[in-house]
Amino acid sequence: MRQAFLALTAGVLLAAPAFAQDEPPQDIPFEGGTLTITQNEEFEKVLSFNGRELARNFALFYNRTVVVAGKNVALFDIGDGGNMCGTNAVMVWKPDAGDVQAEIAGEDCGSPPAAVTDYNIYFVPFLLPGASGPVQVWTPSEGMKLAGSMVFAPQPGTGWADLDPAKLDNIVDSLSNAEIYAAAQALLGDEVTQVATGLLVGGGAEVLPSGIFWSSGCVPHACGSYDAFMAVDARAKKLYFAQRQDSGDTKTWPALAEWPKDVADAARSAIPMEQ
To answer: What are 190-211's pLDDT values in tens digits?
Structure first.
């Protein structure tokens, strides 16, 4: 990602070599000193404390300063830039003994937003249907630890009659309905998360004259590869899914021969499907 970013900005660097020096530093008072964000000639943002570097990357932003377990903790967001991945949280604090330190939360492609309490900072993942993930906790004295794990669960007691397509920002939200999720699991098995991911970049639901509603989408930053389709027939209590595969074919759940014509036509209008 860094190489791609540098290649894209090479022309800018040649045309305006003084640009990086034109952006003024950002100073944040902290623990009797100064945290500073500066930009170097390679367009990297560098975080330092009193001139000592703590972290660097192409995107770096000051978030806020909080108090955790009696310690001031400055929070920053850092990442590769662009829209390929989210940012990681950076915690900056001064231990009882020693100089100011920094620790970065999360994996290579971002971390959940920091949820701050009086004594801890939690990183709680956003889970797609069918997915699970770790919950991490950070303290100034012990650093980052595993707090536990989470598994996606729909809202208890919800059913087909509760669905209102007008209230869905994304059709994936329908899988938070307990009966819809159970039906999706029965159809998709362990492919629930993969299909849900293929619906993420999409809009609200469209309603057919039959009352069946549907939407399509694609994988974030990979549209055209694993594009997916979902339709919900609340009256008949049936779901229909389709998703592009590595082979270039489109897989359907259930078999396409079992789909109502209007649903199949809607799917063909949204993603590549057999005729």
So the answer is: 999 999 999 999 988 999 999 9
108: left (phi over 0), alpha (psi -120 to 50) or beta: alpha
Domain count for the chain, please give it. 2
Q: What is the DSSP letter of 179?
A: H
Regions of the chain short of the pLDDT cut 70: 1-22, 82-84, 274-275
Cα dist. 13→78, 134, 266 in Å? 22, 41, 47
Quick one: DSSP state of residue 155? B
pTM here is 0.78
Domain range spanning residue 204? 160-270
Question: Which of 151, 168, 187 is the C-terminal boundary of a domain?
Answer: 151
**3-class DSSP state of 18:** coil
Q: Does 275 reside within a domain?
A: no
3 state SS of 79: strand
Assess whether 142 and 195 both reside in one domain: no
> Is residue 262 in a domain?
yes
